[in-house]
Amino acid sequence: MKSLIVIPALNEESSIQSVIEQLKSDQHCDILVVNDNSTDNTAQIVLNNNVDLLDLPLQLGAWGATQTGIRYGLKNGYDSVITMDADGQHISAGTKRLKQHLIDSHANVVIGTYTQRLSRPKRIAWWFFKTITHLKIEDLTSGFRIYDRKAMKILSSSAASLLDYQDVGVLLLLTKSGMKITETEVPMKNRQNGKSKIFYSWWMVLKYMIQTTTLCIAKTGGGYKKDKNS
Amino acid sequence: MNYTTANITTLLIGAILAITIFIMVRKDHLHGPFAIWWLAIACIAIVLGIFPIIVNKVAHYAGITYPPTLILVLAVSFILLKMLSQDLQRTLQEKKIRRLTQKMAILEKAIKDHETNNNKQ
User: Fold this and answer.
1) pLDDT value at residue A227
2) Chain A residue closest to B91 (CA)?
3) ipTM of this model?
4) Which one, A51, A195, B63, B65, has the greatest CB density within 10 A?
């Protein structure tokens, strides 16, 4: 199975080097970094390491960058795409486990979870979202995932282009489209540098909660038409 | 029919709006569907300026005792509708911009790879 590791990166010059080195040292698949219009040396570091790079001319956010990588993977004939964060919290060894789990479970999507990382407020938020969406997934926001070609096609469509985070919205779209999603526990490190992009200020949390709740209510239940053109 | 200064003001606003729209379209500052919306508003203002009785009649049928209220309510409703339609438009544009940005990055890489391959040969 030909896999592509997609790493969305926004100003990650302090961690991207070690992430790439680690992946390269025990890797079995191609690596693609999607530079989300960083203002630091992220792009240069990636190129110096001879790793494939997509340079976004405008900042699209984490999901926009990830989707770019998925579209690239689909276009270039990859069978699956593994997404991981550039901040070093996802460990290279986990990619093999995701890949193996995808093959064993016959699922379309496998989410790498690390339930210990969930803080109390996060647990409450996830419980809330799981209740209103009926999603049976432990870790809703883990960016450490593997998508097979079917899931890649769905996520490449323009129906997924207005999502802002790789979380509930993406999972709802996949479930609606009949994709099978499973989880597997993977080891993770605590973030080396920087904090969560979402959970760092109360204002952001409130904004995120309202936006995601609206999305959940609007997209849960049958009857919404899938956008086919891409 | 008795014309009041208010009617002439309405008429003038309508006329100036209409002329402005035509100038904007002429200078390519405003295009198609948007011009139609604003011209329609100008037409309504002109018609109401010439026939103020329409407002009184409609207000009467709608059970509104003070006719200017009708105009205000309608005006606010149309402004809300217009704003909503602008946000819908912006959402569509945002989607297009995002997809274009992605495609551009992918194409840029394809071109670069192609150039590197050519240089190697």
Assistant:
1) 44
2) A162
3) 0.86
4) A51
